[in-house]
């Protein structure tokens, strides 16, 4: 069982859950996004948004938090392979941060489409 296909997949899932827990425990940006996600879910419950709007909202939350997690991993990898200042490392980190910015921008636009009609 330990080295079977299923055993390996279950172990891989365990590592992934551990990684998600580490992100939540140690990364301030993920913690902030987690709190914002909870607030947005409270807003969804308050305004009684539709099923499709919930799907879009969870998609946006997942997009932002997953890209932030990958950005964190890339930053950690960059710091590990090259702890000193280097323009290439700066470029890699900037590009990784840019992907989070794009995800966050899309999430804000989705939030606008969902909530502005309920508010105004
Ligand atoms: N080793 C480096 N060489 C060159 N530029 C760097 C280096 N480390 C960081 N930078 C520059 O500083 C910016 C911020 O990097 P940093 O690793 O502090 O990320 P951060 O977004 O502040 O992450 P966190 O808050 O999670 O530590 C990078 O986007 C990059 O422009």
UniProtKB/TrEMBL annotation:
Coiled coil: none annotated. It is found in: Cell membrane. Pfam families: DAGK_prokar. Keywords: ATP-binding, Cell membrane, Kinase, Lipid biosynthesis, Lipid metabolism, Membrane, Nucleotide-binding, Phospholipid biosynthesis, Phospholipid metabolism, Transferase, Transmembrane, Transmembrane helix. GO terms for molecular function: kinase activity. CDD domains: UDPK_IM_like. It comes from the Bacteria. Its main location: membrane. It is a multi-pass membrane protein. The chain crosses the membrane at residues 30-48, 54-74, 95-118. The keyword 4Fe-4S does not apply. Belongs to the bacterial diacylglycerol kinase family. This is Diacylglycerol kinase family protein. It comes from Gramella jeungdoensis.
